[in-house]
Amino acid sequence: MEEQGRRRAGRPRTPLLSRELILDTALRLLDERGEAGAGMREVARELGVRPSALYNHVAGREDLIGGIRELISDRIDVDCFEELPWDEALIRWADSYRAAFAAHPPTIALLATTPLTPDSRTSLMYDAVVRALVRAGWPEERALAVIVAIEAFLLGAALDAAADPDMLDPGPRDDVREFSGAFAARKRALAAAGGGPADEAYRIGIDAIVAGLRAELISGR
Amino acid sequence: MEEQGRRRAGRPRTPLLSRELILDTALRLLDERGEAGAGMREVARELGVRPSALYNHVAGREDLIGGIRELISDRIDVDCFEELPWDEALIRWADSYRAAFAAHPPTIALLATTPLTPDSRTSLMYDAVVRALVRAGWPEERALAVIVAIEAFLLGAALDAAADPDMLDPGPRDDVREFSGAFAARKRALAAAGGGPADEAYRIGIDAIVAGLRAELISGR
DNA sequence: ACCTGAACACCGTTCAAGT
DNA sequence: ACCTGAACACCGTTCAAGT
């Protein structure tokens, strides 16, 4: 990092690294350089240390990614379930969930595909949500499905947000008239209203899901 | 593959490879061995060929993955938009979309994070969906947001389906009573009804989204 | 306990040489 | 045009040696 002179082998008098320092550095590099910046070797280089030194503090790359996930997940708001009606709380929760990951776009693709090792904080979050759903009248055996469905949408929306905004651009061609028209119309509407296509799709989707869930709960299913 | 004797260098009398053969083989290996089986070297080995030989037919790994995506996407049903009301068609489309990827679980994580190079078939699909939505009364500038929202959910649900069914298992602990209870209740309900947790969450989610969209369209919004 | 240094077993990709 | 063979520039990870 700032060290200049070559360090001799052997244990340093005071530790150079810690799990926390490694995770913070990895997340920062991820933000600065994208997915490529989060390798064991890159993190080590940034810390002015040999790659093998990291293994004294993290179990390996998978553990590193899991640690980053926890760092980000800590930003998710679960208090809302104690303060708001279940449907409003669900939206508040989803919004903060999305915001937490949207603050670190390059992490999304990385975290999305790394299976999560269940940690206690995540379980506490699920507990809060389940409690609110059951209290609101959802059958206990269906509560998790509701949560998983919303998380699926959040994950997909986060991946979408991390992608190129012009991803769908059909380009100049005349065999997809309606599609081209809709693409141009969306562009105009977004330019006038502000915000990006991913934000708009997220808002439509989360509102639709929660509205649909509300209707299902009322109708008895 | 079946060849035994070492081939001499130089162009073979009849080509050993083709783009199609390479893509088919890669998809098969992906299914058989998981994400690890789709490397350039693995595909080459399976075809009894040197890795560098593949570059005569595909541009590289990214092109390979893009080709696999197209192979799978061809299974998505878009005819339903000409035959059914928009909301029913949306569900039919989503179901076939999901089924296409669910048939190849290991591909999902791979495809989810590889940015898609817009090909013409995908654009044709979007065109069909936009046409149906606009015909049903959706504002042209909002049609794409509806599609993107549903695709986000599909992508997330597909990732979820590819994950470990017991992923959320809180294990034995007494500080998340409601969560543990819901987990056990879900397990019992699924054992009785059949199907996996991912299927249940998908069904709840897609039905809720489309119900919410239907309500939004009717209410004018 | 916690670092260096050297090694191992992998990747994807390039390119000259051969037919 | 389409393959082999050798190389290059990467990965994550292990482990003995040093303090």
Automatic annotation (TrEMBL), chains A, B:
InterPro entries: Homeodomain-like_sf, HTH-type_TetR-like_transc_reg, HTH_TetR, Repressor_TetR_C, Tet_transcr_reg_TetR, Tet_transcr_reg_TetR-rel_C_sf. It comes from Leucobacter rhizosphaerae. PANTHER family: HTH-TYPE TRANSCRIPTIONAL REGULATOR RUTR, TRANSCRIPTIONAL REGULATORY PROTEIN. Keywords: DNA-binding, Repressor, Transcription, Transcription regulation. It holds the Pfam family TetR_C_1. The lineage of its organism: Bacteria, Bacillati, Actinomycetota, Actinomycetes, Micrococcales. This is TetR/AcrR family transcriptional regulator. Residues 16-76 form the HTH tetR-type domain. Residues 39-58 bind DNA. It comes from the Bacteria.
